[in-house]
Amino acid sequence: MESRELITIQCGHFSNFVGTHFWNIQESTFCYDINQASSQVKEINHDVLYREGKTIMNEVTYTPRLIAIDLKDSLKTLSVEGILYDCNTLEESSDVRWAGDVTLHNSSSLPKNQFLLDLEKQDDLIGSTASNEDDDSSQEADTTEMNEDELNQEQSIPLSIEERTYNLDDSVEVWSDFLRCHLHPKSVAIIKEYAHQSELEPFEIFSQGTNLWKNGKVSDQMENHLHFYTEECDHLQGFQVLVDFYNGFSGFGSSLLESLSDEYGSKGIFTVGVSPSTFSEGIPKHDSQRIINAALAFPSLADYSSLFTPVSLAETLWRKPGLPTNFNNLAYKPNLNYHTSAILASALDTATLGLRMQEALLPLHQLTDTFSAMGRKVATLNTSFPFAMTQDEALSEVLNKHADIPMWQSLTPHSNLHLTPFMQSVVLRGVSQRKLYMRSNGVPKTSLDSCSTAEDMLKMYLMTAYTRTLNSGNVVQEPSRVATPYPRIFPPNLSKDGFLLGPGQEQQVTRSVPMITSLQSTAGIQSTLETLHKEANKLDIKKFNTYEQYGLETDDYKESLEKLYNLSKCYSTHSCHSDSSTDED
To answer: Cβ–Cβ contacts within 10 Å for residue 39, how many?
Structure first.
């Protein structure tokens, strides 16, 4: 079966937080046991997102087809080139062609947290094991000369780091602090013109980003990374792009998407705009800048994407972020990007499963074309995470409880969850076949109990609960993995498989969870767009001269506000009701 490749682009520091969790989740689903892998049903085709390569030492690698864009000083302990392809020797690096005296200054390396240290040890252990297996001499390893401390050190790190738990809440500062997988040298693209968290020249203005893209050196660097991946794809179906829409990356991402749209117009582009749920400064000027950035970015991100979805764990944004989204069975800290990005990544991973299924693959262009009818190129994302279900409860019973009320929370700020969507793509995962029915003496209690599969049951539920919606429903047996280094945000009343425990049942460390997502084209997004337009319209762009300094004209701002207003009107429920009335007459 051919793999229809996707290239992922992460544009901004918070986007890379979300992306890092996304790739960690993918990595946690890999099976390295040949015997176990041969007996498993393969649901997900990882080749859609990953590429196989070889180092100059002829070692096989399997890395994400990824471009992660960030600022200088944002990587901490991570090397831009990674370690898989690092074949430089000390002699090569110290070849100094200078006849005079040379003084060598060694700077101390930044400290790694315990997770990264253990991951490094595990990689070394796996590498030495593989080296021993490939040894032509075929001699048995002699451990008799090892002392007791050396043996204990060899055995101190389990082969699977998932078996260990870490509290990284206080040690995660940047996204590479919890990056589990290895990256290709073409994956990390650093913008050297600006520094991460710089107080002298912060990268916080939309027009800074657009102006930066016009710098031929920077755009050429990005296109070089991009062409490396596109040229090796046989059946490229498109791009999934994450963009920080609240800072300078809002403009940089908009320009990047415009370039993608021009060069790869026949490919699908699914863009997810991301934002933290809290901001520490609380400075009115910065609040206004975030509004302006989003108002400028939203029309551009929608224009140049096949489908655009804004997400955050703040129920409302713009002037001041509102309350954090409440999940009944999560105990996360909304002020930690390490926590909030994990939840967004899990939802994104599940919502896009249809694009990388082994069977019944949903092409990206088919998904986006269906959603973007009538100019509706902005979608909402909703989830129940984890899917609230006790160990003894049947799926039909849970679905029947939500015949009249939504079973999920919205991840799109300001959106109205209670309006009937025009269309939706729903994915349910992690519920086994044995948890389907609620029957009495073999007789179905409800119409849902008559379904023979979870997919049939989900589709019947959607048909009855959303009668005026174009529904698509998919079921995946594979649960959502929340293994190390996923944050410990699950309460003790969840089992290791993510189901609610009853009174007196033994507490366990949660390793995976069932969940459901709904990607919707809905009139509920109109509130998101209208509130943004209303707040942006209150601001006089001439008072924020930094935007003009980097090339933004007043007329450009007014044009963006007009586009934002027109985009919101595509979702008018009034026009939809009028159309419905006409049809009924």
So the answer is: 8
- Rounded to whole angstroms, the Cα distance separating 55 from 260 reads 29
pLDDT of residue 497: 93
The alpha-helical segments, DSSP class H, found in 29-166 are: 34-39, 90-93, 114-133, 148-155
Of 573, 395, 453, 431, nearest to 512 by C-alpha is: 431
State how far the Cα of 511 lies from the Cα of 519, in Å rounded to an integer: 25
SS (H, E, C) 424-475: EEEEEECCCHHHCCCEECCEECCHHHHCCCHHHHHHHHHHHHCCCCEEEEEE
Q: Are 180 and 27 in contact (CB under 8 A)?
A: yes
Instruction: Give the bridge partners for 531, in sequence order.
Output: none
Strand partners, 240: 8, 270
Q: Which residues partner with 583 through β-bridges?
A: none
Per-residue pLDDT of 150-202, as tens digits, reads: 444 444 445 567 778 899 999 999 999 999 999 999 999 999 999 999 999 99
Give the pair of three-digit tokens for residue 380. Answer: 């909402």
**Of 574, 580, 465, the residue nearest 526 (C-alpha):** 574
Give the global pTM. 0.90
d(CA 402, CA 204): 42
Asked if residue 127 has pLDDT above 70, the reply is no
pLDDT band at 544 (very low <50, low <70, confident <90, very high): very high
Cα–Cα distance, 401 to 99 (Å, whole number): 81
CA 223 – CA 207 distance, rounded (Å): 20
Query: For residues 164 and 156, what is the distance between their CA atoms, to the nearest angstrom?
Result: 11
In DSSP notation, 177-236 reads GG--S---TTTEEEEEEEETT-SSS----HHHHHHHHTSHHHHHHHHHHHHHHHTT-SS-
